[in-house]
Amino acid sequence: MTYHTVLQDPKREESDMTHEEEQFVGTMMPILDEKQRRLFLGAYSKCLGYGGVKELSTLTGVSRTTITQGKEETRGTAASA
To answer: How far apart are CA 36 and CA 34, in angstroms?
Structure first.
């Protein structure tokens, strides 16, 4: 199942994200490679705060482990930019 299928699944749990946030994630995912998706989702989960990893995992179908790995990989990058 791809993230496109997950985004359009009518049985998907109700999201706390706004429709615009879901559209933003859905727009970004197809243009990113695997590493970029991991980093994007990791960084975005930080913006969402508590529950962000689960929320993005449910939305995209990407595992929580992968998103958490991306979150760890982006730790400290904003300070060094």
So the answer is: 6
pTM: 0.77
pLDDT tens by residue, 15-37: 678 899 999 999 999 999 999 99
CA gap 5, 12 in Å, rounded: 10
Q: From 6, 70, 58, select the one nearest 33 (Cα to Cα).
A: 70
List the chain domain ranges. 3-7+19-75
CA atoms within 13 A on the CB side of 14: 1
